[in-house]
Design brief:
Layout: H1 63-66, H2 93-96, H3 109-114, H4 132-136, H5 140-149, H6 152-156, H7 164-171, H8 173-187, H9 198-213, H10 224-238, H11 248-263, H12 271-280, H13 289-296, H14 299-304, H15 309-317, H16 320-331, H17 341-353, H18 361-374, H19 382-395, H20 400-403, H21 408-416, E1 419-423, E2 426-430, H22 435-456, E3 470-475, H23 478-489, E4 498-500, E5 511-516, H24 531-544, H25 549-552, H26 558-573, H27 578-584, H28 591-594, H29 604-607, H30 609-621, H31 623-633, H32 638-646, H33 653-666, E6 687-694, E7 699-706, E8 712-718, E9 721-729, E10 741-743, E11 750-755, E12 760-780
Parallel strand pairs: 2-3, 3-5
Antiparallel strand pairs: 1-2, 4-5, 6-12, 7-12, 8-11, 8-12, 9-10, 9-12
Helix pairs in contact: 5-8, 5-9, 7-9, 8-9, 8-10, 9-11, 10-11, 11-13, 12-16, 16-17, 16-18, 17-19, 18-19, 21-23, 22-24, 24-26, 26-30, 27-30, 27-33, 30-31, 31-32
């Protein structure tokens, strides 16, 4: 039994809670630039791999939406406001996402919004094992037959990443023309289902157009021979007697046909088809994801057509599509604010975008203004109002007084973020946080600063950079976040929040974190989702990572950027990362693999829970390597910092694998850096004591000094063997008969959180219900 010394009563020096809290983050990569050619803007996510199907779950799209966002830079204004994908309610979707960080260019919106939704519609058994040679080694009827037989997810998705001579071997114009003619043949006997592989043929063509569109793709430009064949085949298909079938199968096939009108840049030939689809829609379609997708796909060619001279000529000669869009937006306004909001707001969005066609301005101006009067800047119709206002402001800016859209970002900020709260160098803007919640958010960020500084051994902000002015913008829900944030701050909104650090060399730089309140709450202060994850990114830029975001990601360091944000978020709040604990049991990745993480590896599980595990392991087992890496990062020497962990190679892989087993078995309570006080009974701020042990019936006594202003203290135990009960008392040595808080579950994983802890010495003990050993005790405040 460890000796119980007299209760410490002497005054201790107050720990300075230091540091400028500066900065904010940025988006996952530079966004795609508007192409110089007449082709449409490349406005969707980069093809890091074959695109994924969107969900149809509404404004709050669940786990995907709530994932912490990649660090990013703002999306260029020319790329904002493209049609929104189903399952997303605002200006993110196809138009506001950013490109890959590894040089892949952004893909067409239609590709992003429809790809990989293949498996839901049953058809004949499909080939699932394919190689590129299976396509490049075939031609003519053999190629057509093979494409019709494959599973599109397994066999066609990988083709989106082809380039060079391999891409040309698969997607040369001869092959594309062969497939286009096969589409026409199959369309002539279309039965309303994908029984013949018609969908797969069109999806192959979509991949071909996408690959050919990329810079230096290796595939020469296609000519009018192919375009004419596409128009002929799709015209036959759209005239099918089965056009009106309201089924998943029909919606999937015809929806893909709409995508091809955009991919092939033949939008001007199908204005009547787009009108037909818009006019055919009824609420009965809403029972089918694919039927609603069929409708929503219409908005992509209507958007992208504005950069196509043939489309501009066609819509100028017959502008009745504008009237159809206007009628649709008004007649189906009941969709606004719901899970299919995009079906209505996209109609107004595409109508207002066409005001950029000079010959149509006289017609469109009053219609756009009418839709602004029909909707409202707040409430359920806000998404329609915001999109119409944004497009009018972008493409008819000289008439902003007419529309009432001058200073649009400021107007939207005032309407959606009316509350302002000063928090040191931070400004918290919120939609409706109470004064007490604003103060709580402020205090959470204040307290996170010394926690981060202690963890990273921070000596001060990076010299010569300007990231000390922060804005924390908080909306009431994902819906409001998605409606407003993209216009005000230029960010992608298909996520759980983002941080944009701007240009740190600009003395007027303001760092912005955009966030929202999630329901049900997952334990964040005031329910602000990812509050502490995003603020970790702020501090990374202030203290540890010199330069703008593009500079910071010149090496594979996403394991650190996102992994540390997760690690700090969980450990600062004293919360177990249960997802990471579950992943640890799977042993999916080696540490050496995680060290190579980039934003091009579009895998949220690898980025976040596995990034957390990598960072936590390095702090627990090899903190010296972290501090050596950070010394380089702080000077902008990212190559040197990368070399620190890259040169480790596979040396830590075996130990990491063993450590994962321990994490999975111990429930994942974080252990922190060792407490520095030489007294073995003294705990401290955000630190741990390992290898605690006692025989049955004895008590391990510990104490901690809390400075003034401490809002809460968390004491936790984990690891080792036996059964240790945890006790806390504010005035005397704690134990089974003297305590004000306890955790007495079986085993060694225990946790106590004490709120509003006053300054002074506080007392902790581990009582050996049965003998215990190898236990780690952690204290956090």
């Amino acid at each position: 039994m460890r000796n119980r010394s007299p209760l410490p009563r002497f005054a201790a020096a107050t720990v300075a809670a230091a540091g400028l809290v500066v900065g904010l983050l940025a988006n996952t990569a530079s966004a795609a630039q508007h192409p110089a050619s007449p082709r449409p803007a490349a406005v969707a996510q980069a093809a890091k791999h074959a695109p994924q199907a969107p969900s149809l779950t509404g404004a709050d799209t669940g786990a995907a939406s709530d994932a912490a966002a990649d660090r990013t830079t703002p999306v260029p204004a020319t790329l904002r406001g493209a049609p929104v994908k189903l399952g997303s309610t605002a200006g993110s979707g196809a138009g506001a996402t950013s490109s890959s960080t590894t040089g892949a260019t952004a893909q067409h919106p239609a590709i992003q919004s429809e790809a990989a939704a293949h498996a839901a519609v049953a058809r004949k058994a499909a080939v699932t094992s394919c190689t590129t040679a299976d396509f490049s080694g075939r031609s003519g009827a053999a190629l057509v037959s093979f494409i019709e037989s494959v599973d599109p997810t397994a066999c066609i998705n990988p083709l989106f990443s082809l380039s060079g001579t391999t891409a040309n071997a698969v997607f040369n114009e001869t092959n594309m023309l062969t497939v286009a003619n096969a589409v026409a043949k199959s369309a002539s006997s279309y039965t309303g289902t994908d029984s013949t592989g018609l969908y797969e043929l069109m999806y192959f063509m979509q991949a071909g157009y996408y690959v050919q569109y990329q810079p230096n793709s290796g595939v020469p430009a296609y000519d009018a021979t192919l375009s004419n064949a596409v128009v002929s085949g799709l015209t036959t298909l759209f005239n099918t007697p089965h056009f009106g079938d309201v089924t998943d199968a029909n919606g999937q096939v015809l929806g893909e046909a709409v995508v091809i009108t955009d991919s092939a840049q033949v939008q001007g030939s199908f204005l009547n088809v787009y009108k037909k689809i818009l006019n055919a829609y009824t609420s009965a379609w809403d029972a089918s994801y694919y039927m609603d997708g069929f409708l929503n796909n219409v908005y992509t060619p209507l958007w992208n057509g504005n950069w196509n001279a043939a489309f501009v000529t066609a819509v100028t000669n017959d502008s009745s599509i504008v009237d159809t869009l206007n009628s649709f937006a008004r007649n189906h306004s009941a969709l606004l604010g719901g899970s299919n909001d995009a079906l209505d707001s996209n109609a107004g969005n595409d109508l207002a975008r066409m005001v950029g066609i000079t010959a149509l301005q006289t017609k469109i101006r009053p219609l756009a203004k009418g839709l602004l009067g029909f909707s409202s800047i707040t409430g359920t119709t806000a998404n329609l109002w915001v999109h119409v206002a944004y497009q009018a402001d972008q493409y008819d800016a000289s008439q902003c007084s007419y529309y009432g859209t001058c200073n649009l970002a400021s107007e939207l900020t005032a309407a959606s973020l009316p509350n302002t709260y000063a928090c040191d160098n931070r400004t918290i803007k919120s939609q409706s946080l109470s004064a007490s919640d604003q103060a709580a958010v402020c205090q959470s960020l204040r307290n996170e600063v010394p926690f981060f500084e202690n963890l990273d051994k921070v000596t001060g902000p990076i010299p010569g950079e300007y990231e000390s002015n922060d804005v924390i913008a908080i909306w009431d829900s994902p819906f409001e976040y998605e409606v407003y944030s993209w216009v005000i701050y230029g960010n992608d909104t298909d996520n759980g929040g983002e941080t944009l650090t701007g240009d740190p060399t600009d003395p007027n730089n303001v760092v912005v974190s955009v966030e929202y309140i999630k329901s049900p709450d997952d334990g964040f202060v005031a329910g602000v989702w990812n509050l502490n994850h995003e603020y970790t990114h702020v501090m990374q830029s202030i203290y540890d990572m010199k330069g703008d975001f593009g500079t910071q990601i010149t090496v594979p360091d996403v394991w650190w950027i996102e992994g540390q944000a997760e690690y700090v978020s969980y450990s600062y709040r004293g919360v177990t990362d249960t997802e990471a604990v579950a992943e640890a049991a799977k042993h999916t990745y080696k540490l050496s693999q995680l060290f190579q993480n980039t934003y091009a590896i579009d895998d949220t599980t690898r980025t976040y829970p596995w990034g957390y595990l990598a960072v936590r392991y390095m702090f627990e087992r090899h903190p010296a390597d972290i501090y050596t890496m950070l010394a380089d990062f702080r000077t902008g020497n990212y190559t040197g910092g990368y070399a620190v962990y890259n040169n480790i190679g596979t040396a830590y892989d075996a130990d990491f694998d063993s450590w994962l087993t321990a994490v999975a078995a111990g429930g994942g309570t974080t252990t922190l850096p060792a407490c520095s006080d030489p007294n073995p009974q003294a705990m401290g701020q955000n630190c741990s004591r390992a290898n605690q042990a006692e025989s049955a019936g004895n008590t391990d006594y510990l104490w901690i000094y809390l400075p003034a202003g401490t809002s809460s203290l968390t004491v936790s135990t984990a690891g080792g063997t036996g059964n240790a009960a945890l006790y806390y008392d504010p005035d005397n040595w704690a134990g089974p008969s003297t305590y004000t808080a306890s955790s007495t579950g079986s085993g060694t994983t225990q946790k106590i959180t004490v709120s509003n802890a006053a300054a002074g010495y506080r007392y902790i003990s581990l009582y050996a219900v049965t003998a215990f050993s190898g236990v780690t005790v952690s204290t956090q405040y």
